[in-house]
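User: Hello! My lab partner asked me to get a predicted holo structure for this protein. The small molecule is zinc ion, SMILES included with the sequence. Please write out the structure tokens.
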Amino acid sequence: MKTIKIFDMNWPDIGEAIEQGFDSIIIAVGAIEQHGPHLPLKTDSLIGEELTHSIAKKLGKTLQGPTINVGCSEHHMEFPGTVSILDSTLKSIISDYTQSFVKHGFKNIIFIPSHGGNFAAMGEVIEKLQEQYPDNNVIGYADLTKYLEIIKQISVEAGITAEEGGAHAGENETSIMLALEEKLVVKERFEPGYVGIFGEKERNLAFSKGLKALTDNGVFGDPTKANWKAGKVYLQKLCDFLVSEIKKQM
Ligand SMILES: [Zn+2]
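Assistant: Hello! Below are the structure tokens for the protein in complex with zinc ion.
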């Protein structure tokens, strides 16, 4: 097979893959959203695309579905360019993707959010879909608290504080983008954003009032600490973590 990305494939090859036992499909749930003055709007979608690609290869017999390139980003709307959809819209898209892939014969349909604002809506619709399709495994990784905790652990292991690593456009996402598409990273604009404690209280404040309640430049964390090698480590460890979480549900 030349590729596992169905967006790049034709129907006979997709049909043959399904017949040969490719019974799982994985889809990233990304965003079109500001990522500070130094990263592109596609950051979450690109990270999701790469992450789901490596997860698919590690799981084996898994195709990669087209990334959902837009998500729930209302809390970023004070920054130019962000496109946000309603929770209900995201739920409908995930539901319609699932219906399509069930029809084509996939047994495991796996959604991986790469943007914090998508976790809650995705988790809710996944629960409904599991009831709706009892003969399939509709899987979605929906635990945002644990996901952020894993990212923190990876940062701390590399000598970066959780605050510098940051929950948005800080060291961790900037490192990953340096590893994936360095030409889109504007290094001259690296500057720390909010680097205080980012717990549940701060997260809820950002979600309800918008990011500017905490950060003027749209950054949580410190991109000046970023480097591409750390980006590769984040990607690999997040892949390993998500593979083990998905396997629990397969
Ligand atoms: Zn992001």
